[in-house]
Amino acid sequence: xxxxxxxxxxxxxxxxxxxxxxxxxxxxxxxxxxxxxxxxxxxxxxxxxxxxxxxxxxxxxxxxxxxxxxxxxxxxxxxxxxxxxxxxxxxxxxxxxxxxxxxxxxxxxxxxxxxxxxxxxxxxxxxxxxxxxxxxxxxxxxxxxxxxxxxxxxxxxxxxxxxxxxxxxxxxxxxxxxxxxxxxxxxxxxxxxxxxxxxxxxxxxxxxxxxxxxxxxxxxxxxxxxxxxxxxxxxxxxxxxxxxxxxxxxxxxxxxxxxxxxxxxxxxxxxxxxxxxxxxxxxxxxxxxxxxxxxxx
Length: 297
Description:
about 300 residues; 3 helices; Pnp Oxidase, Chain A; Lipoprotein; single chain; mainly beta
């Protein structure tokens, strides 16, 4: 009997499938208890662009060795994979290159790994119940995990006014956060942009504005006085709804939708992947915009 262990997986018969990409691959992988898997695959094919592979859904299948047929001429049975891993390509780099060969490496990880690469903050103004807080947190996680590609991502908001945005929604999908004056927030799921922009595309934004700060808060000791103060604050809330055109994103990567709340209840939206304030971001309005004495009707 041979003392060598039988090879269970042979690299030559395994497959990594990335949307719209075909190339021969070799791989290595790591798995640990209570840790997400990490698989790295290398490819000798030339001219692989990063945008072809990075941030795309992928699946990696491990196949057993094909069995020899007992008789020639029999149909070859379909060989099902012993195991299939679904995830996202989270890293891509060129390892080496020469005149006749270039070697690339791509890393496949589960989508849950994305949760460890960012932070989200929530401000709850109206003392919600624990159940509502948990639901809001889960919605935020769903926004990160369930967004399937660059065309679907979270709803964000930038408040350029001295009012608070108590809540907002886009086409009925909640932005979750309250947004204070001259701040950003959001994190709701999701804005799904069509693959092709079309003339006349628009979204409906519904939002509520209200008082952000109050220096005359009376406390709770004098209950009638507190109720009078609460009535005054509630009287300052306003409901708004507006249809806003979506700017042309032809040939651009789409990263959700950012709503800019401007004075006089005006709105602008952007699908840009750049952060607000960066030179490439299309909306150049300052965060603190002056409030006009009167608004056009």
